[in-house]
Amino acid sequence: QLQLVESGGGLVQPGGSLRLSCAASGFALDYYAIGWFRQAPGKEREGVSCISSSGLITNYADSVKGRFTISRDNAKNTVYLPMNALKPEDQAVYYCTATQIPQGLCVMVGDHWGQGTQVTVSS
Question: What are phi and psi of 88, to 5 degrees?
Answer without folding.
Answer: -55, -30
